[in-house]
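Our preliminary data section would be incomplete without showing what the modeling component actually yields. Below, a chain of 349 amino acids is followed by its predicted structure, encoded as tokens that our downstream tools consume directly.
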Amino acid sequence: MDTLAIVILNYNGQSFLAKFLPIVLSYAEGYPVYVADSASTDHSVAYVRATFPNVRLIELPYNGGYAGGYNMALEYIRTHYGGARYYVLPNSDIEVTPGWISPILSLLEANPQIAACQPKIRSYSQRDQFEHAGAAGGFVDWLGYVFCRGRIFATFETDHGQYDDNRQVFWATGACLFVRADLFHQVGGFDASFFAHMEEIDLCWRLQRLGYQVWACGQSTVYHVGGGTLHKSNPQKTYLNYRNSLFMLYKNWPADGWLWGKFLLRLVLDGVSSLLFLKVGQWRDVLAIIRAHFAFYRHLPELHRQRKVLLQQQKADAVLYPHSIVWSYFMKGERLFKEMRDVSSVSQN
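Predicted structure:
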């Protein structure tokens, strides 16, 4: 069994593989590199096979998105290659750096309670700034809205070393997720119904409910292009983000009697965000938000079944940010992580 498997999921990303796969191979520190191709219709498979003979190529039967694709790929690695103790899942548009692996593996080895971890994620195009997808570690507020150290909504901090520490967070980004292989398979991997977006947050929430922790490592840095498969302006991305946020919240919220009150507030706030989209003429995003809510209602029976199972398995509570990030950001003007109330204790249990 390998200590670490580096697994890149690809869908029609030949240009990213050409640009970033050689860098991954250069800084792989001797660990095997896999490319799992999700039935691409470009020439990705032929390109990898011809250009990178040392890469272990996995050809998946269909495009199951990030969630389903990685579930299939990691199960294949476990059954056909003997598995690994840890997986790292860098997006195909991630540029890794020298020494990006060792600090995180050291952290995982030193603390067996850490189930998942991430490096700092900086922007490929604005290299001194944190990037949208994960920045320096993520959090979830009491309504299920997500934010990060270094990135809250449209505010992106410049990296001055303010997050060079190692600390517990709520979620580690799927852009470059390190996870213990045995725990990944124990909890059933990602929820494939998410397809893409927020599946890693759902996974991290489930891991914490079993008593494990999620950390961010400030000694490791990678750069992310972002939107490589689905651009942020695509209404389908809006749909998946809103829908999956509701999926995640319903499945994982503890049994405290406030669940439907929170969904009522979410309905109001999501409606306000629809008006903001409408104001700038993005009516397709408005329709995407409406579709997301109806999809949530359609999936309620299955989500309720999952919720019951998760409540039965729960051993610990995950610590959410106890305030509304929407209120803090838009009404109080708290644009930086350090300005937020009670944030120093979040996930530091």
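Residues 156 and 269 are 22 Å apart (CA to CA). The two ends are 33 Å apart (CA to CA). Preliminary results of this kind motivate Aim 1 of the renewal.
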